[in-house]
Structure formats: structure tokens, C-alpha cells
Amino acid sequence: MFDQLILFIASLVANFFSALSGGGAGLIQFPMLIFLGLPFGVALATHKVASVALGLGATLRHLKAHHLERRFSMIILAAGLPGVILGASIILFVPERLATFLLGLLTLGLGLYSLFKPDLGLTHVPRNREGRALIVGVAGLFFVGFLNGSITSGTGLFLTMWLIHHFGLDYKRAVAYTLVLCGLVWNGTGALVLGMLGTVAWTWMPALLVGSILGGYLGSHVAINKGNLWIKRAFETITILIGLKLIWG
User: Fold this and answer.
1) In this predicted model, what pLDDT tens digit does every residue of 213-244 receive, in sequence order?
2) H helices within the chain, ranges in order?
3) How far apart are the two ends of the chain, measured CA to CA in Å?
4) Tally of helices (H runs) and strands (E runs) in the chain
5) Does the model's pTM come out above 0.70?
């Protein structure tokens, strides 16, 4: 019961901040699973399954706000899902420390980039939805999908930033797409692949699922009510912390 309580609290906190900033649940939840005794591969598969509940909780809140466009949602799914499947298929064979260090550098760079671009993501100006610019955007979505399938800590943040930087979304809409499409569909696909190739600690799942759903809903509720500047600051804080955590391990 004590372990289940720890799992619930860690999941609730991790997914609250993840829903608030557009990613980063793995900063707390994934290391906690390892700390409590799960091997890396089992912890990865278990976290990926639990992270689907974050998408479910966030979806329940964001659908009320009508932030998602059907055509653009289909582009994100079609471009990212092949990357998710590829990444999830090979991650168990990749040296963990090297992948984690490189991901830390990239994540830290995201936070610093947003921090030094004061107006980034504060206004919604859709762009790059046609022609060559769309092809570049699709390639970026595939790469982010690959990261999402392969490495679990904070990769939703990459999708949030790519949607803002390349497609011109504001933070509120970018976070909505990340939590619903990445959190629910991408993570669901990654969880399915990892569940087939690895092992999931199903007895740990009840506390993780409840914490993920509740944290996802509450974090999304706060993000919608607070607005873009508040989300931007949360995004920068989470990315910098995750980057430093991954680099220094």
C-alpha cells in the first residue's frame, strides 16, 4: 500500500506538470519506477502504458475547449505514428546513457530557445500547412515521433515546440495537440509495441493510471484558464529542469 501511495503521488505530480507545460511526465514518473525496483526495460514499458492515461485525462478537458482541427490532427498522427513505431522497436537495443545524454542536451536547448524568444508561442498564427513547408513539418513530426517511441522522458515537449516554431501555434493550442494526440495516440501505439516486445508491471498500474488521469485533467484545466504566458513559463521551467536532470543523470 505504501508503494502504491508513492506511485499515485508521483504520477499525479508528474502528469499535472506535464499537462500544464506540454510534456515532461517522465522526469518524475519514469525514474520513480526504476527507484522502486523495476528494470529499465520494464519501467519504460510500464511508464509508456501509464502515460496513455495522461492523454485521456487531458483529452477530457481539452475537447471542451475545441482547440483541435481535424485535418491538422490527421497530419500529426500520420507523420508521427511511423516514427513512434520505429523508435519503440529499437529503443531496447540502444545504449541507455548515450541516448539519455543527447536527449538532455536537446531538451535543455528547447527551454533556452523559448526563454530567449520572448514572443514565441504567445499568438496563434498558423503557417506552413501546404507544399514544401508542410513536407519539412511532416519530417519534423516523424523525428519527434521517433523520439517519443524510443525515449520516454519529456519528448512531448519536442512536439509542443515544433508545433509552435514551425506551424505557428500558440502555447495553449500546441499543448492541446501534444496531450491529446501524443499523449493518447502516440503513447498508446508506443505502449502497444513495448508491451509486445517487453514486460509491463501490471500490478503497479492502478495507482499510476489514477494519478495520470487526474493529473492530466487538472493540469489541462489550469493551463486553459491561465493562458499562453503562464504556459510558456511552465514549459521553459520544465524543459530546463528535464535537460539538466538527463545530462547529469
Assistant:
1) 888 788 878 877 877 888 888 788 877 887 78
2) 2-21, 29-35, 40-65, 70-90, 96-115, 131-150, 156-165, 171-177, 187-197, 205-226, 228-248
3) 29
4) 11, 0
5) yes
